[in-house]
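Dear Dr. K.,

Following up on our conversation at the group meeting, I've run the structure prediction for DNA repair protein RadA from Microvirga thermotolerans. I'm pasting the input sequence below exactly as I used it, so you can double-check it against your construct before we proceed with anything downstream. Let me know if the numbering doesn't match what you have in your notebook.
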Amino acid sequence: MAKRHPSFACQSCGAVYNRWKGKCEACGGWNTIVEETGSANPMVGPVATRPSRAKGRIFPLEGLSGETKEAPRTPSGIAELDRVTGGGFVHGSIILLGGDPGIGKSTLLMQASAALANRGERVAYISGEEAVAQVRLRAERLGLGQAPVELASETNVEDIVATLSQGRPPALAIIDSIQTMWTETVESAPGTVTQVRGSAQALIRFAKTTGTAVILVGHVTKDGQIAGPRVVEHMVDAVVSFEGDTGHHFRILRAVKNRFGPTDEIGVFEMSDRGLREVPNPSELFLAGRDLATPGTAVFAGMEGTRPLLVEIQALVAPSSLGTPRRAVVGWDPNRLSMVLAVLEAHGGLRLGMHDVYLNVAGGLRITEPAADLAAAAALISSLSGNPLPPDTVYFGEMGLSGAIRPVAQAEARLKEAAKLGFSGAVAPAARVDKAKDRLPLAASAIGHITDLVAGIAARPGRAARSRG
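The predicted C-alpha cells came back this morning:
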C-alpha cells in the first residue's frame, strides 16, 4: 500500500504543496492553504506509486476530414438564456454558473427548470443548501408551483447519481451548489478543493454517460471570481457568470467560457416581483431616464457578442482640493481611464492634473471593449468645458497613445442599432466612416485624431450660453 503523506491544498486556486505555507505561491492568497487527508504524496501522485500491470487498450485514430454533426441541444424556453448558451443546453454538457449571493441564480434556474418541465422533459433540482420546502416556496412566489420539477435536498454525490440514473435520464439536472457536495471516495470535508474536484468529476462522468445536461451552481469570492479550485472551470464545458447590482433592477448573464457556443454573448434580465423578465431590447433600458441637456454624458454604441448595445457613459470633471486628484471609475477599466486622460493631456491640450475625475457607466453595466475610448473621452471633454453633447449622437472608437482614433469591428451594426432607436448622428473612426459612407443608416462624422474631437466639442455653445439665450 502506498505511503500516505500530508497534503496541503489552496482553497482558492487548488495548488497543492507538501507542507503548509502562509501564502499561496500560485494565486497570492493568504491563509488559504489547508491540510487535506486521504491523499497520496501530492508531488508524486497515486498513479506513480501504483504501477499498472495491464496493457493499454488500442483505440482507433481518425483524421480531421469527415462528417461533423451539430451537437444536439434542448432549448430552455428562455430566449436570453439560450442566447448565452449558444441555442440551448447541449446534451451531456456541464455548465458552471456563478454569481453574488441574492443576485437571482436560483430564480433563473427555477424558471428554466419549470419551462423545460412544462414541455414534458424530466428535470431534477438538487439543493444542498435549502430544504425542499424552501425551494417550493420560491416556486410558488414565481407562480411555478404546478411545474412537474423533481426536487430533493441531498449532498452525497453517489446518492444523487444513483437516484438520477433510475428511469428516464433527466434532460436537465441542477446542483445547487457544488461547494456543498461531497463524495465518499475522498476523505475530506465538504467545500475543500479535493471534495469539490471529486464531486465535479463524478457529476461530469454521469452527464457524459447519460446525456443529461448538468448545471453546477458555484459560490463567488468577494472580488467576483468563482470560488473553489480553478481546475473545475477547466473540467466543465461552459462557465456562465450572473452579474448585477442589488441597487439596479436588471441582471446580466455572461458566458466566460463555452465549448459549444460564443463566449461574448450576454443575456439581459429585469428583476420583478414575479421573477426575472427577459429584456429583448436592452438599449432602451440602459438609455431610459437620461438627461439630454447635461454636460458630461455621451451615448456609447457598443457590441456584446453579436448584439449591438447602446449605453450612456457619464463623466464628472471637478476642481480638486487634494494634492493627488481622485480618479473613480464604475463599470469600466481604471487603467483605460488613466490612458485616456494621459492622451487628452498630451495630445488634446486639456489640463486635467488638478481635477478630480469620476466616470460611470449608467445602469451598472460593465464595459470591456476598447471601442468605448472615444465615448469616454467625449464625456470627459464635455464635462470639463461645460458644453453638452448632441443628444441624438452616438460615439465609438478606440484611442491610441498617439491620439489617433483607430477603427473598431462591426461599425455598421452599431450604427443600425443607433438609427433604430432614433439617433440621427454618430462620431466614429474615419477609416470606418469613409469605407462604408454610402451604406450608413445615419449621418456619421469621421474622427481621425483626438484633436478633432476636442475642437468639435469646444465649438459647441456651453450651458451658460444656452441659458442666456
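Two things stood out to me. The radius of gyration is 27 Å. Residues 285-459 form a domain with the Ribosomal Protein S5; domain 2 fold (CATH 3.30.230.10).

Best regards,
J.T.
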